[in-house]
Amino acid sequence: MSTHDELIQKSKEYLWLPFTQMKDYEQDPLVIESGEGVMLKDTEGNAYYDGFSSVWLNVHGHRKKELDDAIRTQLEKISHSTLLGMTNRPATELAERLINITPEGLTRVFYSDSGATSVEIALKMAYQYWKNKNIEGKDKFITMKNGYHGDTIGAVSVGAVDTFHRIYEKLMFESFHVPFPYVYRHPSGDPDICKEECLKELKKTLENHHHEIAALTIEAMMQGAAGMILMPDGFLTEVRKLCTEYNVLLIVDEVATGFGRTGEMFACDHEGVVPDIMTVGKGLTGGYLPIAATISTEEIYEAFYDDYIHMKTLFHGHSYTGNQLGCAVALANLDLFERENIVAQVQQKSSFIEAELTSLHELDYVGDIRQLGFMVGIELVQEKETKKPFPWEERVGYAVSLEMRRLGMLTRPLGDNIVFMPPLSSSEEEIREMIRIIKEAIQNVTTKRETTVGSTK
User: Has this prediction a pTM greater than 0.90?
Assistant: First the structure.
């Protein structure tokens, strides 16, 4: 077995980490060895709070007995067989469970292995749906500015985060971009004005181009990768109405927001919105294994159901689609949601999180704090009154995350937005300690910056 130093050396020599400038990693390497509950431990024995649910997906904490046991039990039967042209017990039973908990009107489950692939499937479904109905020309998509739906080329094409997507512009297909109501940065600061202006732009785009638009893609209630940007009340409802009015499919991305994360089982439940297609992943297996799903209405499914010679088949699939181990642990995950009343717990603890976060408002460099359930973004700014951001080159958010790591908590910032998304199982005591670490880290980094900037004047 490799020692800590050997693992560090091998990781520097052989690995290429996702969304990571490897020069950063080489300066600040970290190798995780184990986890228990909301804690992670590295190969040197240091313990850290998992302050971002291992990238937004852990639900019940690490080494949850019921989930571990579900995988072991399934492993004694079979670990994987294909879903191409056949099915298996866990995939079939999980599909029924998903239809029972997702918004009424969604009836069909198509499995994949990540959030990005679930979105890719949704795009192909929407595109081919109109083709199968012999309606030509509806082959483009609308997306929200700063939207993020994954990293495959189709998902990137309906994304609009310049930092992540601009470099791939020539690989992407054309989409219509409409503004997302970012109230904090709106000149008026009024959610109703901001919402109405964005809806007006969306309506104008639909009026002019509905005949060429297959679908609109949107993250449910909260834009994640954009920095945790919360929708004003009623915005998603109005988007649903406009899509219906102009005969455009609505694809709602619940990959990050689904499975209790926002205080409802799915974020669109906050407003009773039923999409035509919904994508889920991350929390589906409790954060254990890579299973995702694209869930559609019966109307969309029926547009593909025909004799083979009419070539209406959805020609899409993945090698590990409907993997038995993943579906088995997903079923155990849903059992825990019912038995432990997870959604109600999240609602209760969300109020506690909100109260604890108030102490951060007093910090000079905390601009906005956006929260929905267990999704929190803490925006760091250079000037609180004017909302002036820090120069991006300073990477203040990254420096704060490294300081949080030194203090015993892990997260990944989004620019200068600190992400706080702990496992849903986190206790009030654990939540309080994590927020204390966030506060101390912000104070330490900004105080040091004040000293450094002051000494160079």
Answer: yes
